User: What shape does this take?
Amino acid sequence: MQDLLLSGSDFTDYTVEVTGITGKNTPTMVKTEFNLAVRNPCIDPTFVTIEKEPLPVGLEYILYDLKPNGFSFQHDAFTVKTVPIVHSLCGPVFYDTIFEGLALTTSSSPMKYDTLTRSFEIYSEALSLIGMRTIEVEAYFKDYPQVKSFGPNL
Assistant: This one.
């Protein structure tokens, strides 16, 4: 199977009927039914997880530096682990990022984030940003946003 259509968004119940026939001269037929629940592995952490990857550490940015583009850096993609078989049925991984309590976007300020390239860009002249700052990264499947993996802070 190359997709998750049989499982629906989380699971689908199917009634399966099995028929058995035995005997050549006097055939005997028996039928029975059972319910089969086909579950979507993408929403079960037993079968699919998003593994954290270390974010860059020790990066420094100097206020007013690198006009007009600012300072940019990128992080590695988080790893998707699937068991018992390797597959990519859950779709692409996207990222949400937070800096100073602000969700980052491609147009946020003073820091921007592009989920497709996993890259940050910052330019600021705000003296209030002097010092160590924390960036939070969370990965999720675009098609299953309820499945998340919080990454380490930078």
Q: What stands out?
A: The chain has a mean pLDDT of 86. The longest strand covers residues 11-22.
